[in-house]
Q: What sequence folds into this?
């Protein structure tokens, strides 16, 4: 569950940044563009690195799909995080929206890297995003993380009660109120349905379909 919770959080940042960048009419808000492009790229690689740290790496499959663009974006991400690289210095208005151009001055150890062939940074990042999502879905399916699991409702409720009882930050009156209504709470809590709902929302958030549709409209 911790794995899925972390993935959900990274996807929240990725999706929110993407949404913020899709509609950006002039005059250009430079800080908005710089911030959200940075969050978008950083969060994609944070998720990729998180999967690697949990022995479920997807980076090699992404590399095989997009080739040298992976190293370009990895270096760009490092430049943003560690050197405050400003990727909003060049832009153009396309179909009524301000679009940042893909930087052509990304350098690794003194070597100028070849930029992706896609001239719009948002579109190039979304192409990386689609590949990342696809490889992530494949990996999560391989390890069975997206399967609905049978839940022992009684055991889960006992664990839930134990967490409340042992949490020193929950006020005593709130604990007492919970215990006084414990049977009613047990009737209302359905961990199987809650887990199913959480998985469905994650699958929707993870799907590359909306990103693919948006790419076609840029």
A:
């Amino acid at each position: 569950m911790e794995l899925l919770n972390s993935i959900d959080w990274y996807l929240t940042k990725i999706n929110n940044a993407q949404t913020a960048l899709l509609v950006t009419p002039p005059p250009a808000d430079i800080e908005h563009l710089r911030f959200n492009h940075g969050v978008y790229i950083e969060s994609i690689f944070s998720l990729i690195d998180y999967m690697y740290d949990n022995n479920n790496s997807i980076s090699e499959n992404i590399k095989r799909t997009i080739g040298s663009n992976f190293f370009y974006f990895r270096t760009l991400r490092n430049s943003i995080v560690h050197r405050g690289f400003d990727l909003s210095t060049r832009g153009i208005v396309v179909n009524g929206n301000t679009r940042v151009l893909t930087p052509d001055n990304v350098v690794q150890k003194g070597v100028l890297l070849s930029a992706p062939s896609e001239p719009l940074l948002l579109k190039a990042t979304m192409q990386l995003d689609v590949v990342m999502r696809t490889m992530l879905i494949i990996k999560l399916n391989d390890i069975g993380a997206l399967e609905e699991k049978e839940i022992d409702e009684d055991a889960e409720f006992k664990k839930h009660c134990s967490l409340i009882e042992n949490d020193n930050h929950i006020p005593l009156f709130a604990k007492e109120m919970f215990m006084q209504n414990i049977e009613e709470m047990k009737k209302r809590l359905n961990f199987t349905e809650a887990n199913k709902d959480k998985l469905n929302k994650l699958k929707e958030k993870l799907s590359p379909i909306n990103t693919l549709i948006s790419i076609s409209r840029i």
User: Anything to note?
Assistant: The first strand starts at residue 91 and ends at 94.
